[in-house]
Fold each of these.
Amino acid sequence: MEIARDFQELLQTEIPSIPDFENVTFTGSLASYNYHNLSDIDLHLLIDFGKLEEGAEILEKYFTVKRIQWNKSHKIMILDHEVEIYIQDTNEDHFANGVYSVLTQDWVDMPIKEKVDIDLEGTKKKYNAISKEIKELSSMFEDKKFKEVYDYATQLKEKIRRMR
């Protein structure tokens, strides 16, 4: 909670109208059964973007920039795991096998131990397809199509994020 409060104080110092976080959750692999020694602590700071005054889209970009700056400049470690903060819209679906509310000190979604079957052939196909797209981005960059590269890379990044 101290991390969330410090970050919120930074935001509200710069933009006083930003509402308080509605919840602070711990999620990701360390909050479920798929953790490993390199897992980080995903700390999600939940805010209702619907309550933001005009300019919510700009504020969302502002949150992203501030979050990235914060994570780069604050190497916070808890039991040898780095803490990584995220700003999450309370109206956004969040898919995780475990979500713990640091605010209320209770499970929002209790993790369930599941047997996982990995589709190696499907994974290889997706890897090959994405590799080709990255090579195409490199070619476009060499052709100095910078705007197209940026737009395409942004779409590809979102596609990969959804595949997680």
Amino acid sequence: MRYTALPLAALCLLALSACDNGDGNFTTTTDGPDVVEGNGDLSLEVATLVWEDLEAGKTVGNTLAFENVGDLNLVIYEARVIDSAGGVFYLGETEDVVVAPGGTFDMTVTATLPGDQPKYGTLRVKTNDLDYLEFTVDLEAYPTGWGVDTGDTGDTADTGDTADTGGSDTGGSDSGDSGE
């Protein structure tokens, strides 16, 4: 009987040491596993932030409002301008912002046009809302007199057919400024 108890004891010690060898099998931690919380419920209707009639060299802010319409905290893990169009768009460090249920958080992005041409950029946001874990917001800055068509203005005569969208300029009869 002594002969069979030793191999059994050795096997138990080997099994216990394997459980705590750091390979991830059978180990437990007091902190719990790293998981995406999925608790927030973000309400955000803006897909594009637009600056119109910017004077060259003048810095203007535009606000993006994050509203928590859920019952648990919304966490904005990170918001960062990932395409600044050569420094036109700027957002200060925005990380780990907690928005309580029913609360809002206003984020201000600034734009400074260096000249008389429109610029385009991208803002990336990461949250704990499962529907909006990571998303982007387009950034568009237009100089004074560019003639931006940002949608329905209530003017029935505006068909949007001649609006300059910032693509290749084919004359831009709506801009009123043909000189460079």
